[in-house]
Amino acid sequence: MAKILIVDDDEIMLKLYSEFLSKEGFEVLTAGNADKGFDLAASCLPDLILLDVMMPGVDGAEAHERLSKDARTSGIKLVFLTSLVKAEEVAANEGNIGGLDYISKSTPKEEFIKRIKEILRS
Predict the structure, then answer these.
(1) CATH number at residue 76
(2) To the nearest 5 percent, what fractions of the chain are helix, strand and coil?
(3) Can you give the residue range of the structural domain that contains 99?
(4) 92 phi, psi to nearest 5 deg
(5) Which residues pair with 4 in a beta bridge?
(6) What is the pLDDT of residues 17-73, one digit of tens each?
(7) 27-31: strand order across its sheet
(8) What's the sign of the alpha-carbon dihedral 71, 69, 33, 94?
(9) Predicted TM-score of the model (pTM)
(10) Of 86-90, 98-102, 107-111, where does mean pLDDT reach its minimum?
């Protein structure tokens, strides 16, 4: 099964998403900040990175830029996690805002898992 890296400064969200995804058979790696996330991405080469938008220090946008410029990590699929946008808004835009994939943190578990599987298949 696919390997997923979750980068979020919220420990509760890390545990929640890790539990959801592990139960679905995914190998899950977690990082509490963007720097650790970048190191894990470069060394473990996950199939997908779930990246929180709002984090102290290096935020999601800066982390995305860094990941996309590094040859080791530029090909890894990436989805932003955000509480700034409601699940309905993400759905209305078919999970894409400004050309980037997003999942709202308010997305129900079943829909969250479905989106992750769709993204990994694409």
Answers:
(1) 3.40.50.2300
(2) 45, 25, 35
(3) 3-121
(4) -65, -30
(5) 28, 48
(6) 999 999 999 999 999 999 999 999 999 999 999 999 888 888 778 888 899 999 999
(7) 27-31, 3-7, 48-52, 77-82, 100-104, 96-97
(8) negative
(9) 0.86
(10) 86-90
